[in-house]
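Troubleshooting log. The previous structure file for this entry was overwritten by mistake, so regenerating from the original sequence record. Sequence copied from the archived sheet and checked twice against the printout by T.R.
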Amino acid sequence: MYDLIVIGGGPAGLAAACAAWEGGLRSILIVERDQELGGILNQCIHNGFGLHYFKEELTGPEYAGRFIRMLSDTGVEVRLDTMVLEVTADRQVHMVGKTTGYRVEQARSIVLAMGCRERTRGAIGIPGTRPAGVFTAGAAQRYVNMEGWMPGNRVVILGSGDIGLIMARRMTLEGAKVLACVEVMPYSGGLNRNIVQCLHDYDIPLYLSHTVTDIRGKDRVEQVVVSQVDERRNPIPGTEMVFDCDTLLLSVGLIPENELTRQAGVEMDRRTNGAVVYENMETSIPGVFACGNVCHVHDLVDFVTAESQRAGAAAARYVAQNGDAPQRVLQVRNGDGVTYTVPQRIRPDRVEKRCDLFFRVNRICGDSEILVTSGDTQIARFKREHLAPGEMENITLPRVLLDKARDEITVSIREVEQA
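Regenerated output below.
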């Protein structure tokens, strides 16, 4: 029996395992389906990682490499090229590997760190023919950065998520012509720094409130039709633009990989498509924790690391204390302007000094206040000059404020009227 089994060897799993080892656990197993540790970071060869955690700018492989070296200084066991097939509510993990065959391992605690996958063409229903040349942005990134293949020469990108923005720059640097980045929403879904560095710096146009309404081509993409959309995101007739291209990259959202989570019977949050978690990233099943992009999609890997360290440390405490009785629980609600919150539940008695709360807004806001209320009582207020859906927000709630709350707290946004 293992003290802890970590499912996923990407940045979340690595951070969780290292933190659990530091917390005193000595029987830890990481199960990774790929042939090497590092996860998605291995194909993210651009810089910009590590500014918060390491206080310096690193590439994705460099960031992963540092945690892999940290892991090598521990006694954590790693099984690569091994697929987890099932996780049960009593913390059994069914897996199959090339060298081990089919195995069932029992764990005292589990950390779910499977990451997320990209939304595909089928998920968004783009009309048109089905030629070659339509890729998700992440698949194209792997082809270029790891496999040495060039997906195409004349490119249109649908969606302005961070991966799509970064691939606009990457394809340009490899000699392709990126004709446009098209976004159905009236605002970009990526970080502002990526809009500047990946589009503006290379004179790549960004068409907001536009979407792809037709794909033309027989064997290979030949044309993509882009139309403006109204406030209900319906195409407006007569606004069509035709781009002659051979490649369409899709950056239209990420979906947490939660098939195992649902199968285990963990309570899910339809807002995040991830597990409902407590302040220490514990799910509704005691001893099972979720962290990183499998819980909710993050902007920065540094935030994934901090969250996953919290989950790993909590798993170590759970094993050491053998669990304990449930205590007072605060439900965290999303109010006006807020899409979701993580954690969704807070147990004040388990918060030592403060609790970090992450959320996203559902619209662009200027000078604003983040309000935290419990019933009719305001318990906290935070000022922000700018809020955007593409950037995850974070507030810190001291334990003393949580003790003042009743059964639930609500996080909402109020824009400040300019005089």
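The longest strand covers residues 101-112. Archived copy saved in two places this time.
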